[in-house]
Amino acid sequence: MRLIATILALICLSLPLHAASRAAVEQQFQSWLQSTIWPAARQQGVSRATFDAAFSGVRLDWDLPDLVPPGTKPPATRRQSQAEFGSPGKYFNRGSVDAATSVGRQMARTHAAALAAVERATGIPGRIILAIWGRESGYGRVDIPHDVFRVLGTKGFMSTRSGYFTDELIAALRIAEAGHAPESAMRSSWAGALGQPQFMPTSFLKYAADGNGDGRADIWRSEADTIASIGNYLARHGWQAGRDWGFEVSVPASVSCALEGPDGMRPIRDWAAMGITRVSGKPFPDHELRGQGSLLMPAGRGGPAFIVTPNFYVLKDYNMSDLYALFVGHVGDRIQYGVGDFARGWGTTDKMLRSDVAAMQRALEAMGHDVGGADGLAGFKTRRSIGRWQEATGQPPTCFPARSMVQSLR
């Protein structure tokens, strides 16, 4: 009987919270809003009327990811680590690239004056602003479905990053108090990002800009303000005016893919001296040869390669993904210069789970490699660690996870 009781208890612990438990958590959530969020918001100048309006009818959103209800512990392995490990090329699907490009060209004509004004003021090329705008909200055409106070309230109360989302919740209340957003416009992504540029609330307070001179920074309805805000964000994060984001290149076999990464920055002329050339056949511009650049190989030897400048990493400040920054740079070039697809295709990726990649990462960590965390994602630290392990074991470096490595790296 004890064994049966133990088994039943374990089964109950593995199941989602039942209705009664959820009702209790909802009560805790409402108490937390009053005892923790209201005093913090009041201290930041938020009125009781604004606070009550924001949370009127708001309940927890149990469908959001990474939730840790009171009385439970975060899972040892995050759920998404069990997802299939995919090819980087999927990020550049035909529909996304073509839509962002074609609509971007229309927007370039429609908003030429606003884009030119921001470029003069900040040095940010209009094509880069357009590509971010397109990726974030489809140039304002994508529906933004969530109530920001429900999202940030839920994640502030019970997520793996509760402190971060609590700060964002207070910032969202400050935005509402100041009247920045039009009525009923406080809609967000599942992560709490707002408006056409998809700014988190703290980013809005720091970087939102008035592009049309009406004294407001309306990133919900104003294209001019959206353009100015994206430009201001990139400028404040260190965009180097006059420099490009990067160049697609051909990397000879004599240059190791394990040299990848921003900590391997060196003058671009040094990369050129190693035999790295632009796939376009054009030389690197003289001013770029003098500037710093790093090697980027998102699919290792199995896909396109790039020499990227510090501006590429400013794009990553907007979204911490190599593929995001690469998408923005590539679509921007398509909008302005009419370039085609990357010269080299992405190739194929072995079918495996992200948990397989995470196991490989842990094995590499045990050998002393810095893989950037065992998260099942092949970031540059993981890619080059694989390359260094391959070189150390006498294998040709590919710098990308493969099924054949799973057993070798356990």
From TrEMBL:
Residues annotated as transmembrane: none
Residue span(s) of domain Peptidoglycan binding-like: 355-398
GO BP terms in the entry: peptidoglycan catabolic process
Recorded superkingdom: Bacteria
Gene Ontology molecular function: peptidoglycan lytic transglycosylase activity
Matching CDD domains: Slt35-like
Domain Transglycosylase SLT: residue ranges: 28-333
InterPro entries for this protein: Lysozyme-like_dom_sf, MltB-like, MltB_2, Peptidoglycan-bd-like, PGBD-like_sf, SLT_2
Record flagged with keyword Signal: yes
Keywords: Signal
First and last residue of the signal peptide: 1-19
Pfam families assigned: PG_binding_1, SLT_2
Protein name: Lytic murein transglycosylase
